């Protein structure tokens, strides 16, 4: 389940939205003022390791971070170095802090 972080351009509140799938067309609304004038903070796309229901998926280390890469390319964005590094480390068996699989 992808989690995105948004910032409300009306009241500057930062909030998270959960989506059931990447194809979801749900429009994010500010949790504070219910404005739909929000901007996505792409850097907070999660690795989403724990909630993957396919237990064997991450036994292939090349699958780690794959959806993150796809998510960035889908939005036509260049992946920040920090994200790139975290994925590379995870594939080498060094999971980023806070991840526990
Ligand atoms: Zn707001």
What is the gyration radius calculated from CA atoms? 15 Å
Q: What is the CA–CA distance across the termini? A: 16 Å
Overall structural class, as computed from helix and strand content, comes to: alpha+beta
Ligands: zinc ion
Main sheet attributes: strand count, strand direction, barrel closure:
3 strands, antiparallel
Helix percentage range? 10-25%
What labels would you give this structure?
elongated; 2 domains; 101 residues; Rubrerythrin, domain 2; 3 strands
Could you explain how this protein is built, in words?
By secondary structure, the protein is α+β, with helices and mostly antiparallel strands. It folds into 2 domains: 1-44, Single Sheet (Rubrerythrin, domain 2), CATH 2.20.28; 51-95, no CATH class. It has 2 helices and 3 strands; from the N terminus they run E-E-E-H-H. It has helices at 66-74, 81-91, and strands at residues 3-8, 14-18, 38-41. The chain has a 3-stranded antiparallel beta sheet, with no helix packed on it. A hairpin with a 5-residue loop joins strand 1 and strand 2 (14-18). It is elongated. 11% of the residues are buried. The model has no long low-confidence stretch (mean pLDDT 76). The structure holds zinc ion. Zinc ion binds at residues 8, 10-11, 13, 30, 32-33, 35. Residues 8, 10-11, 13, 30, 32-33, 35 line the site of zinc ion.
């Amino acid at each position: 389940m992808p989690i995105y972080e948004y910032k409300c351009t009306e009241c500057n509140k930062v909030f998270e939205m959960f989506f059931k799938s990447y194809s979801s067309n749900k429009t994010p609304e500010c949790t504070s003022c219910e404005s739909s004038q929000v901007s996505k903070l792409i850097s907070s796309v999660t690795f989403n390791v724990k909630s993957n229901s396919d237990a064997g998926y991450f036994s292939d280390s090349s699958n780690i971070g794959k959806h993150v890469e796809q998510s960035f390319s889908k939005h036509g964005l260049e992946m920040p170095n920090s994200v790139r590094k975290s994925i590379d480390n995870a594939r080498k068996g060094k999971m980023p802090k806070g991840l526990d699989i």
